[in-house]
Amino acid sequence: MSSIFKKIIDREIPADIVYEDDLCLAFRDINPKAPVHVLVIPKKEIPSLADLNDDDETIVGHCVVALAKIAAAEGLHDGYNMIVNCGEAGGQEVPHLHFHLMGGRQPKS
Ligand code: AMP
Fold first, then answer.
1. Topology of the domain comprising 4-103
2. Which among 29, 33, 63 is the best mutation to test ligand 1's pocket, defined by most ligand atoms within 8 Å of the CB?
3. Which atom number of ligand 1 is nearest to the Cα of residue 84?
4. Taking CB atoms and a 6 Å cutoff, what residues make up the pocket around ligand 1?
5. Theoretical Cys-Cys bridge with 76: which of 15, 46, 48, 71, CB 3.0 to 4.6 Å?
6. Strand 24-28 relative to strand 36-42: parallel, antiparallel, unpaired?
């Protein structure tokens, strides 16, 4: 079943889109937990990390490279976090694979 992120891909609901290409889409998290909080998602409907197969290596690599480019474009030159929640026990709420880009916080001392 399609998730809310599929509706964002299809422009059925709005989002603050910061990047798009043939394989992925990136938009700002609606409830940001960091000054910069962007979600990078594959356009292919993959529910979670646990559903990846060998054919998805290119897509996942593409999303990660896109995330790094977005981080640079957002000015996160001192570093950032990439987080992927997987499954119920991993705290995943939206069943469409997504990579959280989070940055802009003061580093822990
Ligand atoms: P996760 O817990 O890893 O599944 O993260 C889901 C994320 O999606 C959360 O950080 C939500 O704030 C975010 N989110 C849910 N709905 C939307 C939406 N319509 N637009 C942007 N971000 C959303």
1. HIT family, subunit A (3.30.428)
2. 29
3. 3
4. 4, 15, 27, 29-31, 39, 85, 91-94
5. 71
6. antiparallel
Residue 2's pLDDT band, with cuts at 50, 70 and 90, is confident
User: pLDDT per residue over 5-64, tens digit each?
Assistant: 999 999 999 999 999 999 999 999 999 999 999 999 999 999 999 999 999 999 999 999
Task: Measure 38 CA to ligand 1 centroid, in angstroms.
Answer: 10
Written as one string, the DSSP assignment of 35-104 is: SEEEEEEESS----GGG--GGGHHHHHHHHHHHHHHHHHTT-TT--EEE---TGGGT--SSS--EEEEE-
pLDDT of 89-105, one tens digit each? 999 999 999 999 999 98
**Which of 37, 94, 101 best tests ligand 1's pocket when mutated (most atoms within 8 Å of CB)?**
94
Query: Is the model's pLDDT at 107 over the cut of 80?
Result: no
